[in-house]
Structure formats: C-alpha cells, structure tokens
Fold these 3 entries.
Entry 1:
Amino acid sequence: MLEIINVSKTFQNANGERIPAVSSLDLTVARNEFVCVVGMSGCGKTTTLRLVAGLDKPTEGRILVDGRKVNGPTPERCVVFQKYTLFPWRTVRDNVAFGLEIRRMNRQDRMARVRKYLELVGLGDYEMSYPFELSGGMQQRVAVARALAAEPKILLMDEPFGALDSRTREILQNELIGIWCNERKTILFVTHSISEAITLADRVVVMTRPGRIRRLIDIDLPRPRDKNCERFRKYNAQVRDLLNES
Amino acid sequence: MRLILPLLLACAWEIVALYLNKPMILPRLESVVKVLLHPTEKVLITGSLAMHMCISVVRVLLGFFLAASVAIPLGIWMGHCRLADKLFDSLIELLRPIPPLAWIPLILAWFGIKGIVDWAPQLSESILLSNIQYGTVVIIMIGAFFPVLLNTAQGVRSIPDEYIESARTLGARRFSLLYKVLIPASAPAILTGLRIGMGIGWMCLVAAEMMPGSSSGLGYLIWYAYEFLRTDVIVAGMIIIGFIGFLVDRGFRWLENRIIWRGRMS
C-alpha cells in the first residue's frame, strides 16, 4: 500500500553544500503491516517519515500510497511526534476532535468517535482535562488517539515514546500493539531504540548514514514479545552489529 | 500595604504645599480633589472634565483599534511566512525607533487640523465625534502599532514547528490553520502586545492633544490650564490620565488571565 521508489532527499547546509539525507531509498509496506525504522541519529529515518507524511518533498523519486502519489500532508497519513504537540488551549476531547472539526463532521458523530478513541487509549475519563494537567505518557496517548481519530490509512510515528521514562514506554508499547491488533492499522514507526523496534515490528528497516537501507529484517516472533528470550536477543545483536559496522 | 506609599506621597505633598503656600506652583490637595469630585462641571472655560475624558478615550480607542487591525494581521503574516518577514522587517526596523511624537510636524503638514467632521459634516452635532482629528488618531496609531505588531509576529514565530505540522497532517489548511492554530497559539502574545500598545497609545495622547487645532481632551486641558497657571486642574488631569491608564492595563491583565490557556508549548 505504501511504496517508496528510488527516493532521495538532499538538504542545503549553511555553506550551500548539498547534504544527502536519504539516498535512493526503496521500501514497500504492505497493508496492516507494522514496520519499524531503526538507526542512529542523522541516518535519515526521520526524513524518510517526513517524506512519507508529505511534510518534505523528495528531491528525486516517488512515494505512492495505494498507487497515488504523495503530495503534501493529509489526514490519511497522520503523524505522532516525539515532542508533545497537543494544543494547550483545547481540552483532551477537543484535541482529539481537531481533525474531525476541520473535516466538518457533525457534532454527534464527532463526539462518538472521540469517545471511542479516548477509551481505546484508556483516557475515557479525561475528556475535559487540559494537556497541562496530564503526564507525558498520557499526553502521548491523547496524541495517538488524535491521530487514530482521523482514521488514517497509515499511522506515522516519529519516536513517539522517546521522551518517556522506560516503564511508561513499555506500557505504551504494549498498548500500541493492542491497538494495532484490534484496529488493523498500517504503521510506520521510527525509533533509535533497537529493542523497541524488535518489540513492535513485523519488519525492521535498519538504516545507516547517509540515508540508506542497510537491511530489512522480518521479526518472526509471537506477540507479546519477551525481551529476554533467546531469539529476541539474537535479533537485537544482529541489528546492533549492522549499526556498528557502518 | 499597597496604599502606604501613595498615601505618604499625598501627605508630603500637602505639607510642602502648605509650607510653600503658592497654589500656582504646587496646589493644595483639597483644590485638586475638588476638581476631581466635580467631573461634570465646567473647568476653566473649556467644558467639563468628564467631556475631556470621554473625548480622549474615544481618540485612543479609535487609534488603538486602527493600529491593531493592521498590526495583528500583518504580524501573523510576518510570523508565519519567512518571505513576508524578510520583506517587511527592514522597513519596520527603520520606522520603529522614530518616536511617535517626532511624526507630529509631518502629520500636521499632511492632515492639518482636519477631522472626521470635514468628511461627514452631519457629525458636527456630536461633541465627541466632532473632536476627532485625523492627526491625533494617527499619532496614537503609530504609538500603538509597533508593540502589537512585534508581539504578534514573535508570538506566531515561536509556535514550535511540530504543532503546525501536526495540524497540517490532521488536515488543517490556510484558514483552519489560521483560526484553529496560529491565532489561539499566539493569543497570549497578541494580548500582551495589545496591552503594551494601548499603554503607549495612551501616553502619546497627551502630546498629540497639544498639537495646534486641538481644542479638547485631557492633554489639551492640562496645557490650557497651564496658561492660567491652574496647577490644581493640571494635577487633576494628570491623575485622571494615570488612573485610566492603570485601569486599562488592569483590564487587559484580567483578560489575559481569563481567556488565555494555561500550560505551555514545548
């Protein structure tokens, strides 16, 4: 459903030099697949996600979603960022309703959908709270609900749990897997944490500088995944070696 | 507690005034209070204190709203669009350091003592509107314009990219982005700009009302009272100008606390 075909992206730095962020990237993501992109900072993984979101334009190549070329951001490709991006002047409920208001969905349907997704992330009781009253983990749950409420074809996640403590992070990972199993979403998830990628993904994309895919690894483990089992650790070592080699 | 120093000042003033016994230099407190307590009576031969006050307030409000209605949209545009920022920035930075009062001669040359009555003669019946001269309003506008503009632009500029990008991936386009993200996100900064702009506009008022052709307003009253050495009227006028400025500032602060969202954008 998502095809990235021979995509390159170069940025110009302050001296006018062209810096490649992504070079000749090819990747296909199937419907309902959960793909994690893992790599060290500066390897182009966030750029890749931004290109898919339509927030940046590729210098070369094409990105297709269901055969249609990506041209600018739309709610069919919602993004959850690492930074907290809930609108502080809106209640939790109105934050989740944001995309639906813009689509001019009527109030009744809107509220029903907001409730559904807030309950899905376990925050049904916080409709009228403001973001500043919530912990970081709760804010990211609302951000996930806000993106899901737009019912995107692909959910794009850019280190969404990167700012959370490790325990909260694990809880949210499990919740995300639960949501993904029930809702059957296509998810492209960017992270620098190897174990996070292996915990979540059907397939891990290992990226290295300058914006190349080093390898695609299918994670053939039943969920929920045990971080201490032998095979998990093997995958972990394999990815780490790939990242260290470069 | 807050009243201790103002009261002390009043006492010291009264003592010095009694000692000097020269009302033309320092009026007694009671004579100032007497002027303040009779706001509807004719002061000197120019009309009542209340009338001068209303005229001044209308002038400031008019100049302020005109300034805000240009500065807010322009500020949002400059804050959001880098090209617009580059386009206007140098011009604004050139004009901004010029004190509003330095504009007075030029504005007199442009508008003379014309006012809205020259444009709509039927308004001459109204004391309030027949006293609105273009020049005065333009001076206030210049004073109020820059704080509103700069605060608005800065407010929009400081919205983190992720908020705007989130909104765009949720489907926000031009107008929905403007009304649902840019304006509410920068509302605290805009309101601060309005508060400062209003304060500066109010400060420019007195000077603007001293321009030739002005025959009303608190600034005019003070100047006019000076010609008769009526320091009691001068001080009464000053107190009212200060008090109104204070009230307006408080009003804006109240508004800031009431309608502005809490928390912050990271």
Entry 2:
Amino acid sequence: MTANPALDLAAAVRRGERSAVDVLEEHLARVDATEADVHAFNTVLGERARVAAGEVDAAVARGEDPGPLAGVPIALKDNLCTRGIPTTCSSRILEGWQPPYDATVVTRVAAAGAVAVGKTNLDEFAMGSSTENSAFGPTRNPLDLSRVPGGSSGGSAAAVAAGYAPLALGSDTGGSIRQPAALCGVVGVKPTYGVVSRYGLVAFASSLDQVGPFARTVGDAALLFDVIAGHDPADSTSLPGAAPVASARLGEGVEGLRVGLVTELVGAEGLSAEVVAGTRAAADALAAAGAKVDEVSVPATVYGLSAYYLIAPAEASSNLSRYDGVRYGHRAEGAADITEMYVATRSEGFGAEVKRRIMLGTYALSAGYYDAYYGQAQRVRTLIIRDFDAAYQSFDVLLSPTAPGTAFPLGEKTADPLVMYLNDVCTIPSNLAGHPAMSVPWGAGADGLPLGVQILAPALGETVMFQVAAALEAMAPAGPGSSAR
Amino acid sequence: MATPISTADVAHVARLARLALTDEELEQFTGQLAAVLAHAADVEALDTTGVPPTAHPLPIDNVLRDDVVVPCADREEVLAQAPASESGRFRVPRILGEAP
C-alpha cells in the first residue's frame, strides 16, 4: 500500500501525534535547502504559515477537529487570489498587487486546516508549458536542474516534487496541471469544468480554465479534490448539485472496467517512442488487472491543438483587456493622456508570449476573420465533444500519454512558439470538452526522468477516473519521483 | 483559405489591443502568428456545415440568485491597490483632448 504523505500528516495532526508547527518547519527547512536552485515560489509565506499552523495546533489542543487537511502544507499557484498577499501571475503588470479577497479554493483549503506555504511560479498568466515565460525567472525541475518542470503550473509541480509541500493547487487551461505533473513525477488533476470554483482564479480563457490538485499520490490528490470540489454561488459557471467524490472507489481495482486507448492521441504529432511504449504498457497492466482494454478512435481530437490556439487566445485577448493601469497593478509613468497610458502600461507590463496570444486572439476575433477562425474553432469544439460522447458509449475511461516526452532542457523550445504549443497536444481535448483528466507517474524514460500517463473521463466521471488512477499507481514501474522525500 | 497575416495586419491588431511594438517585434510576431495560423489551416478547411458552435462546455445559462444584500469589497482596501486615487475615486491622466 502506498504511503500518502498528506493523508498521513493530517491524520497524525488530528490525533495530536504531530504538531502542525513542526510539520511546517520540516517543510520550510527543505525550502531553505534547495529553493535557491529550484525557484518554485514567487513568495514564501514563512511567518503567516507559522501563525496558521499554530492555530491548527491550538484547535487540536482545544479538542476541535481542524479538518481533513489539518496541518498539511500546501503551495498555491500565484494566479490564485490571496487577500493581502501578493498575487502576480508572474507578470510585471501585477507586480506588488495584493488582492482584497481570497479565491474560493484558498478559503476552502484553509477551512480544511491546510497551511499555505507560498505562492508558486508560473508562465506569465498561465500561458506556456515550461514556466520559462515567468517575469521573475524560470523554475527548474527538482529532479534535474538543467530541465524545465513543465508548465504553466511548473512552480506547483516542482514544490510537490521537491518536498516543499505534499499538496499544491494549480490551474489547467490546456494541460497546465497535467503536463508539469508528468514532467515532475507527481499526480496532477484537471477536474470537470464547473466542479471547482474559479472565483478568485485570475482569468486566462474562462471557458477552459479549471483549478485542480497536485500531490505525490492518487490518494492525496483525491483528498484535496474532495476539499475543493463543490458548488460556489460566487462563480456563475459553477455546477449546481453535489460534486463527484474522488476518494469513493480508490483501491477497488479495475475488474470489468472498459478502458479505451485513444488512437489519435497515442499517434499524435511529436510523441517520443518511449512515451507511446509507456502508455501501451500501462494499458497492458490494466488489462492484466481485469479491465477490458481496446483501442478507440476519437477522430476530431486531431484538430484540438489548432482549435485551442484560436479559442484560448481569443478569450485571453478579452480577459486581459482589464489590465489598463487604472485600478490595480503597474501603471506607466509620464503619459500625456489616458490612451498613451494604456499603451505604455500594457507594453511595459506584458511579456512576449502574453503579447503574442493577445494579438493572435484579437486577430482571430477581428472583422473578416471571426468566422474563419474563432467561429470555426468553436464548431470543431462541438465535433470533439460529440466524438468523446460516442467513445464513452463503449468505454468508462480513456487512456493516452500526458506529455510528448520527458522534461526538456531549459531554452530548448523557447525559440519557436509552435514547438512549445505541441506539448499540450494530448491534454487540450479534455479542456475543450470540459471533461476531467489526470496524469499519474508511469516509470521513467531513458534519461531517468519521469513519464506520465493520462486518464480521461466523461464529465463528472472523477470517481471512476481516480479508481483507475489508483490501480495504475499500484502497478506503476518505479520512477524517479516515487522514492524521493 | 485566408491570405497570410501581414505586418500591416499585426500592426493593426497591436493598435486594437493597445500594444506598442518595435519594428523588430513586429517582424518577429508576424512570422510567429503566421506559423500558428498555418497550423490552424486544417481547422479552417474543415467542412462544418450544420455543426453548431460550442462557446462553453456547460449547458448553464441565466444563473440567478435571490436578491439578498451582501457586503461588497471595502472601498479603501480596493483604492489602496490603485496606482493613483483621489477623493474615493481612481485617478487617471487626461481623457479628453482639450487643454487642462
């Protein structure tokens, strides 16, 4: 049975066997030891975390239950609003901004007893797949400092992989939780759209963005999922009704479950041979464990990447129009009038990738091109949803690679944006469909760095998705992320 | 098939997006945007006759709540984050063209 660091810590703290303050200090010591090399955090919350941990211990001493995450250190992606704590999105345009409110997920994890240890680095406004687009410098992969941690939630993935916290929150618009989880050898989950509140998540592409967990084990990811999932009246896109329970069927095995290996994703552009072999080995393992495994075609997924890079920039160009230097964040000095101020503020404040996507989106939405690009991409989105629906008539979950390869060297993919975008080829379809998907570690590549496999499920299919993930975890070949810490 | 994006198109889009680009950035972005749009040519060429667009993955619209008065953000806390404020308002440079 796999040890679950967060579940075990919370249990020990709730029983009074471990103090939350001691647990925190142990994790902060790891931050002190290696953070100068890794740079997982934009902000480390030492003193605030000590106060929060002290409150957890005081509650236990009073005979109260601090909650299911009692005393568990958690890292928060720096695009989640934290009241009175800088929230930068790794952008100059928000440098120094201290939100006047907390994101709902931040409130929920705190109410469950978790202790926030820091705000993690990301590609600026979550646009990227390597965390190299941060205005504050890249995060490095803790398993090999010459490699990227993936992105955009690279800081959160690195924080969990480095042992700075057993849990982290990230956001996933096209793969930004799952791809860095795969590259850092941890578990990463994109929930069904609408299951986790987006209130207080700084918007990138509102019809695609979801907040989700990182953890070292499937059990810990389920624990965090079950804390953050659920209706939030503050988010008008939050699903009403009860959320699926991730931890309901862990350990029940996969006997009789129908698992489809997605032909188009296993054969996608640019995948390394070892990634494909790993995914096939995972499928074989599920079959050996009693699942009915077959290949299945989901034809429209081949258009996912192209459709995504029209839809996401279009939504981003609209969402990012709010950064104008008027109400918060950076304002350029010395402008003669307000238009000059807008232009100077935005030109100084945004990095190259953000500018590129704003312009791509503005173009895709502009007169004469709207129907050819944005309208057409939205129709392709319908085709992808239809093809997934057809596949789920015959399968409970689908399986694919998560990322095209293992963690790549810093600088290798920065010259050509399209090469970087191809990182998301297997993860994007689930965002376009609004479906849940997660990455679990599956051994290592020839370079010794972790590989991941992706489990995809239909909307609200988290219970069976986590069930399959737990089975895969139990059968996975040893990887570099599994023995550390 | 749309004509390839030109530097004039990119300059126009940058103006719409309130971004100032150097000549060097203009050249670079034109090439990069052209590459992404070329990759999207498969989507552009697809026959989607009769397929309705999906703007959003959820069949949710017109979300309503009871009309209950709840506290809103504190004005001083919000204004404290503004680059400039005056008399309870956001202060900005001149908006109209006339002399001050």
Entry 3:
Amino acid sequence: MSVRIPITGIGVIAPGAIGIDAFRALMTSGRSAIEVVDRFDTDGLSAHKAALVRDFKPRDYIAPMKMRRMNALSRLGVAAAKLAIEDCGATLEADTGVAIGTAFGPVQTSVEYMQEYVEKGAALAPPQLFAESVANAPGSHIAIEWGLRGFNVTLTQRESSGLAAAMYACTQIAKGSVRMALIGGVEEANEMLFSVLDRLGALDDEQRNGIVIGEGGAVLVAGGGMRKPYGTLSGFGIARDTTASISDWGSDPQAILKAMRHAMKDAEIDEVDAIYASANGSRRGDAVERHALERFGKPVVPTKHIFGEYAAAGMLQLIAALLAVEEGRFRNVLVNSVSAGGGIVCAIVSRF
Amino acid sequence: MTGAGIVCSIGRNKEEVWRSIVESRAGIAKLTRFPGETFPTDIAAEVTETLPKSKRLSRTDLLGVIAAKEAFEQASGAPRENAIVSTGTSTGGLLEGEDYYFQRRARGRRRARASRVLQQPTSGPSDAIARAFDLGGGVLSNATACASAGAAIGMAADYLRAGHADVALAGGSDALCRLTYSGFNVLQAVDPEPCSPFGANRKGITLGEGAGYLVLERWDDAIARGARILAELCSYGASCDAHHPTAPAEDGRGAEAAMREAMGDVAIDYVNAHGTGTLLNDSAETKAIVAAVGAAIPVSSSKSYFGHTLGASGAVEAVITVLALQHQIAPPTLRLRERAPDCPLDYIPDTPRPMALTNVLSNTFGFGGSNVSLLFRVGPAASRP
C-alpha cells in the first residue's frame, strides 16, 4: 500500500475477555477460552466444545430502546465499536467508513424468522427479525449510532472475513476516499451452526481433529486517534487455491505462498519476523498451510487454540498480532487466513 | 470492461435481455416458486429457465455461474491465474437453507441432510464461480444487502488499481427465497401489482431474481492483449445514510454523496436509477439526483422490467447500463402512467429512447442505508447514432 494504516483503537468482546486489557491478559496467560458448551444442547452430537463469550451485558454499551432492535451480532458489533472508539480517544469524522466481516452472519436470526413464519404464517412474521436477517445489520447499526456516512460494507468470506474487511477499509484510506474507518468482525456460535458443522465432521471431537467454533465481536479504529497506534496495517495479499472444493481446503501450498509474498510486496518489506498462522485444527487446512509455512521458514504463532475459529470473524487473530508488535516482540508479522473453498487473505502488521 | 453476462426474468443472456428491453417487455408474473405457501402478494420476476441440478451449488450459485460464464467467454482470453471473483449477494443459498430447516423440523437434526446447508453461505457464489473457471486470484464476497453487487464491482476495480489482481470477474446473484419474499411483505414494501417506479400509484417493489457479471481489467492490460473493450468503469462512490436499518434518509443525502463521489466533475447523460417503486426510495433518490446531477437529466428504472433482484441488482443493472451505452439507447421505465408529485424528473416512460450516451451512472442502494453509484463511460465498440 502507498501508506501504512495506523490502528488507533481496539474494542474486543471475546471468549474469555471483554476489553483490550482483558484480551491482552488472556493472550499471555496460557489459558484457553475453549470449554464445554452449555448454552445449547449438544446431546447426540460428536463435538461438545466451543469458545463462547461470557459475561457480556449489552445494556452496559447500548441504550435499551436501541438494543431491542438488534440481534446478537449487532449487539456484539456496536459494543465492540464503542470500546474501540473510547480506546482511540478521538471523535470520529462524519465520513468515516465501516467494513465488517462475518463468516456466517445472522444464521440464528434467520432460524428465528423461519420459526415465526411457520407458526404464525408468512404474512405475520416479525418485521424486526427480517430487518436483522441481513448480514450488514451490525455495520448499519454502527453507522447509525455514531453518524458515520462513509462507505459501509460487509464481507462474508468464511474464515477470511475479518481480514477481507480490513483489506477493503485500508484500500479506501490509502486511496483517499476516507481518512478513518472502523474495521470489525462479528460471529455468533449457535445451535444450528454447531450442529450442522458437527454433522459434516468439521468440528473437533474425541475421534478426530477439527475446528472449534469461536464467537465474539471486535472493532479496530483505523486512522486518526489520540493515542500512540498499536501498530500499522501495511500490506495485503489475496489468492485462491484452485485445488480446493467449494466446502473444504485445497492442497496447493503455492497459493498460500503467493498471497503471503504479495502481502510483503504490498508492504514493501523483504522479511517478516513471524507468521500468525491460520491454523484452526482442520485436517486439510492445517496440512496445506503447514507445507507453505515450512517453505517460508519463519516462527509460527498459532492463536485459535485460545479463542477458536471464526472468533469475531477472524479479527482476534489480527488483534493478537497488533498487540505483539505493540509490545515490541516483533517488527513485521504476517497474518494468514486460509479459508475453506480456497480463498486466502494475508496481511502485514508492522510496528508503528 | 471486456465482458458482461446476465440472467434475469427477461432473458438468459445479454441478447435476450436487450431484446426484451427494446420491445418494452417485462418479465413479471404469478409467483410459482413456493407452491402451497400463502403470501399477501403473489407476483414476482422469476427466472423461468430450468437450471441444471446440482448437489453442491445453490440456486444463487447457479444463477451466478450462468452470468459469469457469459461474461468470461466474451472476455475471450482473459488470464486466469491472477483473476479474482468479487461477488455480491444478499441471501446466498438461503433457499436451500430453508429446505434444510423444514427437513429438520420434520425429521430432527440427526436425520436431516446437513450437506444441504453447505450451499447456504453467502460466500458460496464466489467460491462456485472461481471453481467453475479455475481462477487463482482470490475470492471476495460482499453481503451488504441490496447494495452488495455494486460494492463488489467497486471493490474489484479498487483491487485492480492497487495491483492485487490482474482480472476481476465482478457482479452478483440472488435467488428468490421464502424469507425475503415474506420479509418484504411484512414490511409492506411489496406492490400487489407489477411495480411502477416513480409513479403516482406506486406501492412498493416487485421481487425478482437473477445475476449479472462483468469482466474488468486494467485498461492498458486489455489493450495489450487485444481485448474488445465494451465500456469503461471509471469510478464509483460508496456512502451510508446512517439513518435507519431499512428506510432511506428522506432527503437522499447518502445517495447524493455516493453519486457525487462517483461522478466527480464529469457531465452525466443518463442515470440508471435504483428506482425500486417504494414511496420512500423513489422520492429520496429523485432528490439526490436533482442535487447531484440536476433536474434535466433523463432517468429510468430497469426494475420495472425484472423487479428488484436484491443483492444482484447492482450487477444486473450495471449490465443493462453498459448495454445502454453500447446501443446508445436509454431503457425506459415501464408502466409509468402518471408521475408522482414528488418524482418530477424525465423518467423515460414506456419506450426506449435513442440518445447520445457518454457518461452514465448506475445506482444501487440497500438496507442499512448503504449506497453505491457506479460511473460508466462509453467504450470504443459502441454503435454511435
């Protein structure tokens, strides 16, 4: 990119951590937020673990009247945005853009709408549920809450959704369309998603390795800000593994290497100190990334054993990398996101 | 722009669609997709062609693949290795997700076929198209409600300019599903008769389905490989009303900002409006057009032909806009018997209008107040009058 984009505020509603200080403590504690699911019934399923957000009280962040119009994803997004804006300490400009990522979006809201549809009829389902059944509802609520009139987009690129949102927002700042942007990710673990992925054999259980579902909301303030930036987003690369099926990972490490190298070229750097790996426990996904990382020969930092896959749509992995450069552990790191279906997005996070 | 493809209720490809446009033939009829279910309204703009059966692809995926195939074939020889797919969709495979939901209610979660839900993610169309054409540049999926495909096209152009890709297959697709058909009805946003955008008696939208795709390349790259350039995507504007989750800002401020960003200081000859047929949209968009472009500009809504194709609309209507540039004919607004008092512009009623078109805007707006306006310029292959 022609410019490095400073990250001046972070808001986190994560499994095991609410707020950036708690998240920083989680990342250094050696703890994992993965635990046995008690929010919904997993009887008869093979998997029973997830990384769930606990102790999140939306009313601490959102006025009750507004909260009633929001689904869980919108509440996570607005609360994380509030924390991020407070953390940045600056007033957002009116033309600030918003880019949000979500892998699965409002699955639970769609399920609730269809329940009403069946029970009350197609003409009597609640309009409020329909309004929240679009994936961009969280981004919309964030814009309304803070009067943000810049671009407002929602990216849904599976495991890479958060990084894809970051890439778009940074491209807009670099292009000069806006000076500031909120970059976010939201995800909700729910019974429908959990049971379907379990039936498809994608989840980690006693018999085999697999994904552990995470959830949460996270928002970054890009540009502006009153505090010293955590770090900068300096470059991005995208590619696709053409050996992937539409629902699983492929087997070509060259595609991952291509995206990684493109991100470094975009950031105008020749070397990185470490790679925050996509590694999520999936059998094919981990195997193909491992082959790519072996050829790269740099220290590898996994994070998803702490907060699961899909946590805040992948934003938590990016935030972990930002904290690492802020704390001086690394100068430049690569953040990898390799998706089922073959999509790959890589980002460079640099010390400010 | 070196390729374009389209499928919607008025045709399976550009040729059929344009023939319907010049013959002022709409594709709106009785809803057939959900037999046995009762909705307050019963018309839609459905794609009536039988799509190939697929265990892995949703109807939205399949519509996307059809339009993308036409576009990619037209851009003959476009390199695949660094080609990205940038897709917009509002519902993805929600239709198949509903089937799974009903099956689960009937059989329980252990006996319902979970593989049906593989088709549901809104990332499905991008993955399906990239796989169909063996494209290695990356996939991007935009789910910004009805502004999705417009945003996807703008995003693709940005990534070409930034050097993240060499070619982009950009557009969108959406299939009709129960949730959206019911949802717009419970919002009382559906006209019981075929929609009449900007009309005095307009009552809402007609729901449609379809797909549109464009092949985008950097100008110099397209010239260097000898590609035929259909039109130029010059720029785009993106904004948010920051007003209401489902209703547009009544003063049209967000739409105006998107149009101003797209057009810069370029003189505009025609606006392909979002023009949904709802009371609020058409009034707000008219105000935005007057403020950004002026009151003398010819405007029309091609949704009067094929309804509101939701997340695909930005791409379907971009293809219509490009066809208008190529043929130097502005499509009309059908069924505009009487303009509404709050819609005083020249909406090109009933019949196509031959006119000199150089720079044109294509508007697309969505829930959440997201607005995208695309600026297209006539290409060297246009048939000037």
